[in-house]
């Protein structure tokens, strides 16, 4: 049995969840693991000198728990899918789509990817899209420029020092064009097995 682990990383609001969900819809025996499901409880996330909660860092995430889930999939993809309520088709290839804003910054996870995509969008687009979303807890006033964007720049620099083979995607492209490009790429990996 062949197992493929696809990383859909990228900036906040780059379109990771959207692309991952579309991919899962057309890639047989695939399932999604979202880094956002592993945020620590608000009560343990520290605050900086401006009063901003430090969410945009690996320290705010239960990466140990996320790794356990990945390992559980690697051990038995079929059992993993069935236990998550997903149906399994007759195929020798299984795919895990891991999506999140800091998936390539965490070494033990980064080393497991067969393919790494990074969705990027300009500052203005990012700020606009983020402003139309409601997080839990909601972003306080000034959070984007005071925490989210500076942390993105820091995390990105760190990622680029660690990871070489990223495929950058323009997150302002049409959803269907992004899906088609990634699907084509992935299909080649499936047929190469
Ligand atoms: N290709 C696209 N073109 C225009 N808008 C898009 C595109 N993809 C996603 N969006 C929109 O951008 C917003 C963010 O998308 P999505 O939730 O997929 O991003 P994300 O990277 O998972 O965000 P985050 O992880 O920060 O929550 C949503 O409102 C979504 O509808
Ligand atoms: N999901 C959460 O618990 C949560 C809480 C507060 C902020 N966020 C934001 O999610 C983004 C990553 O998708 C980061 O930019 C966080 O600020 C998430």
UniProtKB/TrEMBL annotation:
Coiled coil: none annotated. GO terms for biological process: NAD+ metabolic process; pyridine nucleotide biosynthetic process. Keywords: ATP-binding, Kinase, Magnesium, Metal-binding, Nucleotide-binding, Pyridine nucleotide biosynthesis, Transferase. One of its GO terms (cellular component) is cytosol. InterPro entries: P-loop_NTPase. Belongs to the uridine kinase family. NRK subfamily. It comes from the Eukaryota. This is Nicotinamide riboside kinase 1. It catalyses: beta-D-ribosylnicotinate + ATP = nicotinate beta-D-ribonucleotide + ADP + H(+); beta-nicotinamide D-riboside + ATP = beta-nicotinamide D-ribonucleotide + ADP + H(+). Pathway: Cofactor biosynthesis; NAD(+) biosynthesis. SUPFAM superfamilies: P-loop containing nucleoside triphosphate hydrolases (SSF52540). The gene is NMRK1. GO terms for molecular function: ATP binding; metal ion binding; nicotinate riboside kinase activity; ribosylnicotinamide kinase activity.
């Amino acid at each position: 049995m062949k197992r493929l682990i696809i990383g859909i990383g990228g900036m906040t609001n780059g379109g990771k969840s959207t692309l991952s969900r579309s991919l899962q819809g057309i890639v047989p025996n695939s399932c999604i693991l979202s880094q956002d499901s592993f945020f620590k409880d608000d009560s343990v996330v520290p605050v900086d000198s401006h009063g901003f909660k430090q969410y945009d860092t690996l320290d705010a995430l239960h990466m140990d728990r996320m790794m356990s889930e990945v390992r559980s999939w690697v051990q038995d993809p079929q059992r993993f899918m069935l236990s998550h309520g997903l149906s399994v088709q007759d195929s020798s290839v299984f795919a895990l789509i891991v999506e999140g804003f800091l998936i390539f910054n965490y070494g033990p996870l980064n080393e497991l990817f067969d393919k790494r995509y990074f969705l990027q969008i300009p500052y203005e687009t990012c700020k606009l899209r983020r402003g139309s979303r409601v997080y839990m807890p909601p972003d306080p006033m000034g959070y984007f420029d005071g925490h989210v964007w500076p942390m993105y720049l820091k995390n990105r620099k760190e990622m680029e020092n660690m990871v070489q083979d990223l495929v950058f995607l323009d997150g302002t492209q049409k959803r269907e064009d992004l899906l088609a490009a990634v699907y084509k790429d992935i299909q080649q990996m499936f047929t190469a097995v």
